[in-house]
Write a structure and sequence with these properties.
- The protein is of the alpha/beta class.
- The protein has a single domain, classed as Metallo-beta-lactamase, Chain A (4-Layer Sandwich).
- The strands form two sheets. Strands 6-5-4-3-2-1-13 form a seven-stranded mixed sheet.
- Strand 5, helix 4 and strand 6 form a beta-alpha-beta unit.
- The longest helix is centred in the C-terminal third of the chain and has 13 residues.
- It is globular.
Length: 244
Amino acid sequence: MVKLIVVYDNNAYPSAGLENLRTSWGFACWVETAETTVLFDTGSDGATLVHNVKELGLDPLTVDAVVLSHAHRDHTGGLKALLDMGVQPTIYVPASFSRSFKESVRTHTDLVDVSQWRTVAPGIHTTGEMGTSIIEQSLVVETGNGVIVVTGCAHPGVANIVRHVHQRFPGQIRWVIGGFHLGGISRRDVESIITDFQEMGVQHVAPCHCTGDEARKMFDDAFGDDSVLAGVGWSAEFELRARE
């Protein structure tokens, strides 16, 4: 099995039933299997990240790998607090990250430059670098009934990211989770993206972080019971399928 938990977000998720979780601008998603724990992004504040992780009953010392989507602080800011605890995960960053950032991380632990599609753990992959002005990577998790796409901010375009994954995995896109970066986008453009999702066979959506309130509502209306307005504390568990 693989479990995904949003451990950092600027949106609350009251259904989690954990009133002590803290919200703050940024995003982080905990991805855990029986063998591996991967943290995708780290939010903007280390104290909030560590608090939420512990409040959710998770152990930050068990993190084996950290995948950073892009270089903005609301996705990388919690990393130092994690490393200062003595955790030594392998850090996967887009190759375009600054030399100073990478050198700083390498004083604590191993760092891997990512440019192309890369497997982080069995059944868990990074898309590699996408985009032009803001380079970003997304996470892909294989399940027994299709793949899950986890986006940090989707600066390269959330439909472009899903299309890129769909080309590699022509079957079902089971979930798209994370920041869709649609705040301030016209309703017509959001409707076009929703249509793209539907045409690519996206089954479920869990928009959060930088998606924007109006766009989140539009996705929720379009997908109905197949949509979750995710926030910190949201979680779901799936059967993991490792690709040969």
